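Progress note, sequence design subtask.
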C-alpha cells in the first residue's frame, strides 16, 4: 500500500500569544500543495522505518512515533515495514515530517485493520505535533490552538504556486523562530478572519487571497537571514510579486499571475542557487483520508 504525504503552505499564520503550557496560540489557514513524500507499507514481524536519508530512518523519524502511538491505541504490537520516499525538503517550513506522520497513521490504520475514525486518529496526531492533525484531511483548513484544532474550509481552486527553496539551513528552526518572536509580532487573528470571509463568500478573487497572505515570522526571518530579504527585494525591485515565507521558513512562495511571471522569478533567483518550482494547490479529496486506497 502506498500513501502520499503532501506538503503545505500557510496562507496566513498569526501568533496570538504565549500559552501557559509554553506553546504559542496560533490561528492559521493551511493549504496542501502538489509536492509529496510517498510512504509504502508492508507487513513485517516488527517495526521498521526505512528512508534513503539515514538521519530520517528508524526511531528518530516521527513516523516511528506515530506507529508506536497508534499501536498503543489499538492494543497491538507495532509491526510493519514503512519505507519513506522523500521529496519534500527537510526543515523548509512545508510540514514534511508532520505529513509523513499523518500518512503513517492513515496507512497503518488500514494495514492493521484497526478501524479507527479520522477523529480518533486526530487525537493521536495532536500528541505527535502541532501540524499533524491537519494532514489527516488536507485541502484548505483553519488550524487553531497549537495548530491541532482543525476546521475544514471551502477548498481553493487549483491555483499555481511558485515555490522557492533557498540555499539556507536553520538549525532547530521552529523552536529558534518561536523564541525570537516578540509582542510586536503577535496579532488578534483579524487577517485570518478576513481570509476566511473571502473563502466562504463564494466570490473567490485570486488577488484578494494573495493580498491577504500574512506570516508572523516574516519580520524575524528577514532580520535573522538577510539572504531571504535580498532575494525578495530582488524580485520586487524588478516588478515581480511579493514573496511570502512558508511556515517558519526558510522556503518562500507566491501565487504567480502567469507562467511567464514564474519563469521571471526563476531567472532572477539563478545567482542564489535556489530551487524554484511551479506546482499547484491540492484539494482534500487527494489528501489525507481521501488518498487511501480503501476510500477510492
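Output:
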Amino acid at each position: 500500500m502506498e500513501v502520499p504525504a503532501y506538503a503545505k503552505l500557510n496562507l496566513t499564520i498569526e501568533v496570538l500569544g504565549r500559552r501557559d503550557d509554553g506553546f504559542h496560540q496560533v490561528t492559521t489557514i493551511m493549504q496542501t500543495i502538489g509536492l509529496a513524500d510517498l510512504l509504502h507499507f508492508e507487513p513485517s514481524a516488527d517495526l521498521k522505518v526505512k528512508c534513503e536519508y539515514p538521519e530520517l530512518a528508524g526511531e528518530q523519524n516521527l513516523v516511528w512515533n506515530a506507529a508506536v502511538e497508534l499501536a498503543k491505541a489499538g492494543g497491538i504490537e507495532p509491526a510493519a515495514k514503512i519505507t519513506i520516499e522523500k521529496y519534500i525538503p527537510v526543515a523548509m517550513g512545508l510540514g514534511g515530517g508532520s505529513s509523513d506522520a499523518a500518512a503513517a497513521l492513515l496507512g497503518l490504520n488500514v494495514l492493521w485493520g484497526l478501524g479507527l475514525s479520522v477523529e480518533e486518529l486526530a487525537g493521536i496526531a495532536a500528541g505527535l505535533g502541532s501540524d499533524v492533525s491537519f494532514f489527516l484531511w488536507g485541502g484548505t483548513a483553519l488550524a487553531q490552538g497549537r495548530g491541532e484544532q482543525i476546521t475544514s474550509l471551502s477548498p481553493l481552486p487549483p491555483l499555481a504556486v511558485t515555490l522557492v527553496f533557498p540555499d539556507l539551513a536553520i538549525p532547530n528552526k521552529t523552536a529558534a523562530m518561536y523564541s525570537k518572536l516578540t509582542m510586536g509580532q503577535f496579532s488578534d487573528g483579524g487577517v485570518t478572519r478576513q481570509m476566511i470571509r473571502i473563502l466562504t463568500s463564494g466570490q473567490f478573487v485570486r488577488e484578494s487571497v494573495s493580498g491577504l497572505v500574512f506570516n508572523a515570522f516574516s519580520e524575524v526571518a528577514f532580520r535573522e537571514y538577510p539572504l531571504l530579504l535580498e532575494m525578495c527585494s530582488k524580485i520586487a525591485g524588478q516588478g515581480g510579486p511579493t514573496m511570502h515565507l512558508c511556515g517558519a521558513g526558510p522556503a518562500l512562495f507566491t501565487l504567480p499571475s502567469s507562467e511567464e511571471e514564474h519563469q521571471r522569478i526563476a531567472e532572477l533567483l539563478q545567482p542564489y542557487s535556489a530551487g524554484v518550482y511551479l506546482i499547484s494547490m491540492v484539494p482534500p479529496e487527494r489528501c489525507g483520508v481521501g488518498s487511501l486506497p480503501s476510500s477510492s
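The CA atoms of residues 70 and 105 lie 7 Å apart. Work on this subtask will continue into the next period as scheduled.
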